[in-house]
Amino acid sequence: MKTEIKAIKALIGQEAMTIREIARKIKADYRITHTAVKLLSKKGAISLKKAGGSLLCELNKGYRGIEIMQAEEERKAAFLKNKDMMAIYKEIMSNAKSSFFVMLVFGSYAKGSQTKHSDIDIMLVSNDGKLKESIREIISAIPLKIHLIPFSEEEFKRMYFSLESNIAKEAAKDYIILHGAEQFYEMMKP
Question: Quick one: fold of 3-59?
């Protein structure tokens, strides 16, 4: 299961990859990675397409298994090792009173390519206007450059499924889900 989770983490937010590329990215033996990928394919977590002599692997956005949620939790835990990010997360979560919302970090902080001049891009998806305003107030009191982008669920879906390039599509490429992983994947389901 450990290699399966690593393979899923490698595929999150990525285009299709070969098994060899996944093995290199997760620093695992090809044979072990191949076995893990085949298991994930049987479970429906990833889809496989033949391309020449290779198999291209792609995350199945419709899959809601434990492997996806565990991979997202591990990504979040690794991200929150940054003390500034943990402080922001704790402050927001201690004041968030709504049950449905999705909060994710995207952009340079999610990619791990931030500099000291980078701002922290946070996307919030919620139908609760009071929650959006509460989080906006919390963020404005934090002495860091934070760019909050709030959407309703309908606005996010409309943008994500549109043909034009937009912020929702950009955020769905490289992201770290801080809250609402299950809801996020549900919204991205066609």
Answer: Arc Repressor Mutant, subunit A (1.10.10)
